[in-house]
Amino acid sequence: NVIVANYSSGNITVLKKKSDGSLNNVIQNIQHKGSSKNKERQESSHPHMVQFSPDKKFVFATDLGTDFIYQYTYNPSSENQVLTIKDSVGVRKGSGPRHLTFSPNGKDAYLLNELSGTLIVYMYENDRLRKIEETQVIDDTFHGEVAAADIHISPDGKFLYATNRAVANDITVFEIIQHGKLLFKQFI
Asked: How would you class 143 by CB atoms within 10 Å of its CB: exposed for 0-12, middle for 13-18, buried for 19 or more?
């Protein structure tokens, strides 16, 4: 299967792959609905990405427009219901969830919020995300447009890097410490 988040149209699309790697027609289209606090950027649903859970049982979709992470059960062999909604996790209104990644050991998840510049740490256990910490990728003295963009964990699992576009134009570096929590190291 190929699963695509469609930012502008507010939906998630599932396509089956053929044996040669080419794609069949759309077999499932899930339309998200809703809006949030920022009337310019969150006037409607804007799924930004989809991410498989480490065990591949679930697909998580970040929705910048609704301030939710949607959790779908992944049914890979289904003909028309590959994704079924299991849960959703809300974030502070106006945050704008953008990118989600899991730690190499699969025990923690990290969510970068584009509009607020916040970074949320979740413990991933019993098939659920449980918030354990929230920090930010901008300095307390920063005054300008926040446009947090992407997060990656170093191959050794010791550091997390978060980018911020626009005026800040920087990378925030965190050390990943005990229980997946983050320790700020530097702005680059």
From this structure: exposed
